[in-house]
Amino acid sequence: MQCRDTGCGTAPGLSTSGPSSGSVPLVRRVQGSSPAPFVARVPIGSWAPLGRRLVVLLFLYGCAPHHSRAIARLTAESNVRLAERQRFEAMTKQDVAALDTLLDDELDYVHTGGNLETRTQFIDAIRNRTLVYESIAPSDVRVRVYDGLALAIGRSQMRVRTASGVSSFEIRFTEVYVRKEGHWLLTAWEATRT
Three-state secondary structure along 92-104? Predict the structure, then answer.
């Protein structure tokens, strides 16, 4: 039997109808055959369920993981910003109980003067009121989240009272958060006056 459109052979049991019949040509060149390709027409309807499934699977594979990664990143950034706000609020209210839940045990806190404090030293300075944060107004804070770590860089207007008096100044800061037991904890802080 010859195909009407191409004049080539066809496989038994496959449609040989023309292009308007709703079939798709499958072209395959057989080794050692004449230059004319082997053409078999397969009805489009038999491919439709597979085609729809393939499109859905490609969509889910290509878009969904990226979409859920983006949502997870935005959620983590939001949670880091919340932890930062809660910490600044606890510092201005001298709420050491709240600070205790917001700071990592291995905290390294470097003040603008360059002195380094541990978690315990930092909390004690706030508890004993040797360091009183009267106001903290962060701005231009950028947060980047990595696997279990977050880096925040920003500026802040500070008003601080120490034994030498009250001072107001602007700082640029870098802070690192670590995710432990579902919470973002400050593990490193370093600030420089601008």
Answer: HCCCHHHHHHHEE
Q: What are phi and psi of 35, to 5 degrees?
A: -60, -20
Tens-digit pLDDT profile for the chain (194 aa)?
444 444 444 444 444 444 444 544 444 445 555 555 544 454 555 545 556 665 665 555 555 556 788 888 899 999 999 999 999 999 999 999 999 999 999 999 999 999 999 999 999 999 999 999 999 999 999 999 998 999 999 999 999 999 999 999 999 999 999 999 999 999 999 999 99
Domains within the chain, CATH numbers bracketed = 19-49 (no CATH), 65-193 (3.10.450.50)
Rounded to two decimals, the pTM is 0.66
Residues 135, 145, 83, 101, Cα dihedral to 10°:
-120
